[in-house]
């Protein structure tokens, strides 16, 4: 199996945490950055644009805004404030059992779904999720 991580030489989450690319957290900007990673392959444990798993994508995007998150969907869900689904905005987190991603509007999620797929937007497929807002 090819190691995608070896093919990426840009900034890591830690680099962005030390020097954030963005000075303020704005949900629209968060979603815009996240959507730029559509098409990146899913890689278990991945946390760079060479390949992401679900929480690696969230961790990497929010690091660019100076927000440190664990590489865990459960930990990321605990890092913010739960809000009603009716108040969700693109850039908020969709937290499921063992999975997370960015709310994409209109009942959709932007996420790194599973091995063999790439970062994409698709309809949220379960009613068992909640929304978390970070940094605003």
From TrEMBL:
Q: Is the Protease keyword given for this protein? A: yes
What is a single Pfam family found in this protein's UniProt entry?
A: NLPC_P60
**UniProt keyword Zinc, yes or no:** no
What keywords sit in the KW lines? Hydrolase, Protease, Thiol protease
Gene Ontology molecular function: cysteine-type peptidase activity
InterPro entries on file: NLP_P60_dom (IPR000064), Papain-like_cys_pep_sf (IPR038765), PG_Endopeptidase_C40 (IPR051794)
Matching PROSITE patterns, A to Z? NLPC_P60
Domain NlpC/P60: start-end pairs: 24-136
Sorted alphabetically, the Gene Ontology BP terms of this entry are:
proteolysis
Per the UniProt entry, the signal peptide is none
User: Can you tell me which family this protein belongs to?
Assistant: Belongs to the peptidase C40 family.
Official protein name in the record: NlpC/P60 family protein
What organism does this protein naturally occur in?
Cryobacterium cheniae
């Amino acid at each position: 199996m090819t190691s995608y991580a070896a093919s990426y030489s840009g900034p890591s989450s830690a680099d962005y945490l030390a020097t954030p690319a963005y000075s303020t957290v704005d949900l629209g900007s968060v979603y815009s950055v996240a959507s730029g990673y559509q098409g990146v392959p899913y890689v278990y444990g991945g946390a760079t644009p060479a390949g992401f798993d679900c929480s690696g994508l969230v961790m990497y995007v929010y690091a660019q805004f100076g927000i440190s998150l664990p590489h865990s969907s459960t930990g990321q869900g605990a890092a913010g404030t739960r809000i009603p689904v009716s108040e969700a905005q693109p850039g908020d987190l969709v937290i499921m059992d063992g999975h997370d991603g960015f709310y994409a509007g209109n009942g959709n999620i932007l996420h790194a779904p599973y091995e063999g797929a790439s970062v994409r937007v698709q309809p949220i497929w379960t009613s068992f999720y909640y929304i978390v807002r970070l940094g605003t």
